[in-house]
């Protein structure tokens, strides 16, 4: 997967914004002001995605490309290394899961604001 396709996929989701709060190379995708994906835009070797804790463990056991979140809460985040063995469709499924976890944690008011845009 290329960075532009990944970025476009994330930004097409309702209410998503992007910024670089940590440094100029670390791009964060947020919904309702909360991060659901983090990538290094210069290297674009991996992505950190939020994940249900039980599913996070399962994915780490099933896929070599998935490990505990680098510099993140390892219970709730996975780092996924981009490689040819992992289909883009699987990665995008995990992006959806991460987005949905964060979106569902938002207040009703924020969800209504996002839905009305």
Describe the structure.
The structure is a single chain. With 117 residues, the protein is an alpha+beta fold. The model has no long low-confidence stretch (mean pLDDT 94). The longest helix has 17 residues, at 88-104. It has helices spanning 3-11, 53-62, 88-104, 108-115; strands at 16-19, 26-31, 34-40, 46-50, 66-68, 77-81. The chain has one domain: Aspartate Aminotransferase, domain 1 (Alpha-Beta Complex). It has a 6-stranded antiparallel β-sheet with strand order 1-2-3-4-6-5. GO terms for molecular function: DNA binding.
The strand order across the widest sheet is 1-2-3-4-6-5
What's the helix-strand series?
A: HEEEEHEEHH
Number of domains: 1
- Radius of gyration (CA) equals 14 Å
Low-confidence stretches: none
Number of helices: 4
Number of strands: 6
Keywords: DNA-binding
Pfam families: YjbR (PF04237)
InterPro entries: YjbR, YjbR-like_sf, YjbR/MT2646/Rv2570-like
Organism: Belliella filtrata
């Amino acid at each position: 997967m290329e960075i532009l396709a990944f970025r476009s996929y994330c930004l097409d989701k309702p209410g998503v914004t992007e910024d670089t709060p940590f440094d100029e190379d670390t791009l964060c995708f947020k919904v309702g002001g909360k991060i659901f994906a983090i990538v290094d835009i210069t290297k674009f070797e991996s992505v950190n995605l939020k994940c249900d804790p039980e599913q996070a463990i399962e994915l780490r056991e099933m896929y070599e490309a998935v490990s505990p979140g680098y510099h993140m809460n390892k219970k709730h985040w996975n780092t996924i290394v981009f490689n040819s063995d992992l289909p883009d469709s699987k990665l995008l499924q995990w992006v959806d899961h991460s987005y949905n976890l964060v979106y569902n944690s938002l207040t009703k008011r924020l969800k209504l604001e996002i839905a009305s845009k």
